[in-house]
Structure formats: C-alpha cells, structure tokens
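User: Before I run my own analysis I want an independent prediction to cross-check against. Here's the chain; please return only the structure tokens and, at the end, one sentence I can use as a sanity check.
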Amino acid sequence: MQEIDEVTAHMPGFGQLLSEDELAPAEDVKAALFKIKAPPQRKAKVKCRKLLKTKPFTQASFVSEKNSIKVEKEPSPYRYPDDFKKFAHGVMTKAWRKELHLKELGVKCSKKPDHRTRARRDILRRVYVEDEPLPFEPKSVLDVDPKFFTDVEGRPVADKLNVREYITTIREALRTRIVVGYREDDLMLLEEHLLIEQEEINEIKTRLHWYIGIFEELLFRSHTDSMEILRRSENVAEEANEMYEQHKAIMKKCASIRTALYISEERWHNCLLYQRFLYTMSPLKYRNEHPLAFSPKDAGSETNDAISLTDIIEEFKDPEKYEAPDLYFTEPEQLLEAFRFMELQNLSSLLYNEELAVPLESLRFSIIAAEERFSRQIKKLEEQITLLEGGIRKVVNSYLKIPITESMVYPK
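Assistant: Structure tokens:
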C-alpha cells in the first residue's frame, strides 16, 4: 500500500480517477497487511539416505516394438565374416555414422548424446519387453461422468492472495487507463483531422465533377470541330483527286506532244545533216557560187548541245524563214558517180603510195646508215678529246712539281 500512497502523493488527482468501490479492495488489503504475521520457522528434518537398489528396466519412452533390437535375431559378434560381407558392413557402417552425425548437428549442444547415453539407449533397445495386457479395460473420468469437463469448465480456481501481484495489477491498470486517456485524446484529434480532410475531399470531389463536366463539354466541341474538319478534308481530297486525274490526263497528252516534237526535231536535224553532207560532196566551184545559209560550226553546236523545249518551239514557230534548199545533186545516180570518182582517186593514191614505198625504204636504210656513221665519228672524237685531256693534265702536273727559284721569277 506504500506504492498507492506514493502514487496519490505525487498525483493529487489519482484518488479522483478511482471510485469508492474500486478503492474498497485496496483498503481491505491495507488492513489485511497489518494483521499478517511472520510464519513460524519449522525444524528441518534430516532424512537418512537409503541404499540404492538396482531395478531391472525394460521400458523407455523412446523405445517401441518397431525400433527395438531383437537379440535372438542379431548375428553373433564372435563370428568373423568373409571379405565381401566385411566390406559391405564397413561401407554401411560409414553411411550410418554419417547419417547419425548429420542428425546430431541439428540438436542443441546441451542435448547432444555422448558415448554413455548412446550405450544406455542401445541397452534400452535391447532389453525392451512389451507390457502384458491388463486383465481389465481401464476407465477414465469421462467413462464415469461424460459431462465432467463441461461442468468444471469456466470455474475459477481458488488461489492465495498475493499482495505484490495485486499492487502490480492496480499499477498496470492505472497506467493502462492513463495510456487509454492519451489514446482517446489522439483519437479525438485524429477524428477532427479526418473531418477536416473529409470536408476537403468533398470540396475536391465537387471541383472534380465540375472539371469533368467542363472537360466533357470540351471533348464534345473538339469532336464536333474535328468531324467538321474531317468532312471538309474529305471534300478537299475528292477535289484534289479529280484535279490529279485531270493533271494525269494533261501530262499524258503533254508527254505525247513532247515526244512527237522531239522526234520531229530529230528528223529535222537529220535533214540538216543530210543537206550539209550533200553540200560538202558537191564540187568546189558550186560551193563558191552557192554559199550555205548557216555555218557548219553552228550546226554542230546545235546537234551536240542540249536544246530546251522552248528553243525547239521557237525554231518551228516561223517555218517560212527557211527557204527550200538548192542542192547540187538532184538524183541518187549523181551521188553514186561522185562516190565512184572518189574511190578511183583513193585507188590511184594507194598505187602511187605503193610505187613510192621502195624508194622510201631505201631512203630509210640510208638514213640509218648515216646515223650510225655519225655516231661512230662522234665516239672517235670523244676518245681523242679524252687522250688530249690526259696529256694536258700530265704536263700541268709535271710543271707544278718543278721548284720555282728567284732567278726564274725575276730573270737578270
């Protein structure tokens, strides 16, 4: 009760937290504490140690009919086995020891068996004897009264009053009440925060619904505008397709016209080339009397350089500026006669060249012989020059070796 008084002294409101009914058991305990007297000391009785008697043991908690060792069926330890059985026994013994070691690794250090406990267990497994059946069937409490445990269940067990436990229980109860009060304050604060957050959530929900409505309206307007734009784009695409088809037809016509124009221009250039060829084949007297309207260089530049379509069109716009060509050759036989004449001239020139081949060959050999003679003479001259150069050097060296005296420098 001293702890209760200390609590009330340090906590002035502690007595107000407990009611009179709750304080009554504490007062009774306080009164009972003053009546308790120290228990009388009992005299210690000395017991004499009796002699231990060896009793046969034939049962153990861990031995049963399954793991017991049958001594009658066990082979004799005094019989020596053959080599094959000895090898098998050694292998199996090694495996059994390894398995037993792995099992003992999982056991606590205090519970690990030693050689004595192993020998004791082995003896218990060997001397196991099964209990004889009882002459009568054993009965339990339920056989006498089936409702025994249901009647006894829930009844308090009379226990001796422990003041220390009572004080600790009251102390824990008070501490628990204080903690519960703090928790209730925290819960009230949390509830207040939850109410404030719920109001904010409701406001956010209202704004969310408003935003959703505005967004749906925006989506509706965007959908209508996009559908209108899509319809217009389809109309524009149809118009563009029609214009594209017209453009393709016009391009086909333009390509055919351009092809025909290029073909006619090529034919016209071929005609000009034929005219120029016939003019070139005509006699010189005729060419001097009838000069050509355009020079051959201009015609060659027209054929070689790339001519644009506008130049071709401008060329054919005024066909009257080109007069009918005045040709020397009016019949094909005349041109054939000119070719035959040219062929005869070529043959005569070839014959003349063949006649000149022999004197030209003799002239070539004479030129080669003259070149060889000239080269031999040059070599002879070079040898003579080298000989003269050697003689001059000898004379100069001999002159330099002669001692120069004063009489030779200044003659009297």
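Sanity check: Residues 1-34 form one domain.
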